[in-house]
Specification:
Rossmann fold, 2 domains, five-stranded parallel β-sheet, two-stranded antiparallel sheet
């Protein structure tokens, strides 16, 4: 699903209008997590970028067949394959691409595939991300002093949607490795070490049921906050 609206809706920056660091750039985000994508949207649209989203390798490749964004951000764990395969395809074409993962070990995987850089979830520095994208996409140097951008809080409704999806993946008949990878990445992105640890130690059906109950507890808690 593309970001709504597709056109950028930047917030006011301290130095005034007309100097948005990513103004005029179109970025493609390939990630199946709505929570992560909303966090990126808030950061990058504020910096002036126009964003498109693809939830899978298939959708990303369909988009790339007709459009060429200025830079792509590709998650390594996707529902229909490995993000590093798409990174390698884009790198071969000389396309600037950033790898993305909740697993810090993904850095080597992304860079070995040809990524120009790597973003670890959760995003520690919005300004650092904007600076890196601007350098890769335009060749322009670091941001001026005063152009710092605060990392926004995550969207709780997006987090709830991702947790509902994770619950279905954990209890469903799909790929169990992908389900656990998705959940661990989500837990790291939203700062939930207990959930991340629970997703690491799945050995039996009882462990899986216990994890599913933990996810349901998180969903219920978010419902009470709404």
């Amino acid at each position: 699903m593309p970001f709504p609206p597709d056109a950028p809706t930047p917030l006011a920056l301290p130095h005034g209008p007309g100097r948005l660091p990513l103004q005029g750039l179109t970025l493609l985000v390939v990630d199946d997590s709505r929570f992560t994508c909303d966090a990126l949207r808030l950061i990058l649209q504020r910096a002036g970028a126009r964003l498109r989203r693809a939830e899978s390798l298939e959708i990303a490749r369909l988009h790339l067949a007709f459009h060429r964004p200025d830079l792509a951000i590709v998650d390594l764990g996707l529902p229909d394959g490995r993000g590093q395969d798409l990174i390698a395809e884009l790198a071969t074409q000389g396309f600037p691409v950033l790898g993305l993962s909740g697993d810090p070990d993904g850095r080597d995987t992304a860079l070995d595939a040809g990524a120009a850089g790597f973003i670890e979830k959760p995003i520690a520095s919005a300004a650092g991300l904007v600076r890196l994208i601007r350098q890769l996409a335009t060749g322009v140097g670091p941001l001026d002093r005063g152009e710092d951008i605060a990392t926004p809080p995550g969207d709780l409704m997006a987090l709830r949607d991702d947790l509902v999806r994770a619950a279905g993946l954990i209890t469903g008949s799909g790929d169990p490795d992908y389900a656990l990878t998705f959940l661990r990445s989500l837990a790291r992105a939203c700062g939930d070490p207990a959930l991340e640890a629970a997703a690491q130690g799945i050995r039996t059906a009882f462990d899986r049921a216990k994890l599913a109950r933990l996810i349901e507890d998180r969903i219920a808690a978010l419902g009470r906050m709404a």
